[in-house]
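Notebook entry, structure prediction.
Reason for the run: the old model in the group folder had no record of what sequence produced it. Starting over properly, with the input documented here first.
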Amino acid sequence: MTHHTTTAIDPHRPWIRDERDDPSRMDWAQTLFNPLGMTGKLHFSRAWTFMFMGRLILFIVPVFVAFIAGLAGADMSGAWQPIKAIGLPLPALLVPFFFFTLVTELTSWVAHVRRFAEANRSTLKAAIVLIPLFLGLAGFALGVVAGSAQFDAQQAKQAAAVESAATGDTAGDAAATSPEAAGEEANEEARPEARGPRRNGPPPTQMEMALGAGMGFAFPLWAVSSFFVMLWTLLHVARMPNGGVGQFRTGSDLTREEQRLKSYETA
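New structure, fully documented this time:
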């Protein structure tokens, strides 16, 4: 059974000659959430474009607006403060981007499974789109371990400093009676900036430091791997012909007879 027609399905899109790519027949719910069906080239491209543009807009637009508002003198510090309700050190500005990305990781996998099924290819290849998610989770786990170790090291260093100060109290009291030692101590207290910048508020807890390090590891891994997966989707998956036959084209696939007919029409 062929899905090709000799006439354009949509008069506004004369290059579409496969009913599986008819825009009026696209079911967004099936395309994004049902991995058991099939999706034509055009419907897959539309779904993938929606997911990609959604991520792009939810990331670039808030950051750009906050940057411009900051240049204008507005106080945007609250936009970069993490929301404690979600348990992750995510800036309030990027919370919609984070949750939209999590959802579209799943819907992207579903759309790829349907596309491979339509092209008569192995649907196992669709797991490639989950690689960025897995790398991000692995990076998050490694970052959490590293952050916890860093917190423990800082705590041990502070404990050692307190113990050292306690054991040196006797000698320190004797030395502090001299005028020279008293003057040096007064000068040191008068110059707090010499000790380096201080963090506002209480020091970070072990969980805060661990989660912050985890996100710092996870995001670069996810972003870089997502870029290569995007290239694979655009250059391979989105160009696979419907039904596994035909040329690799951006429009609907045409049979050889239709291609010859089209060449005579345009001659």
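Summary: The chain is about 60% helix and 0% strand.
The old model has been moved to the deprecated folder.
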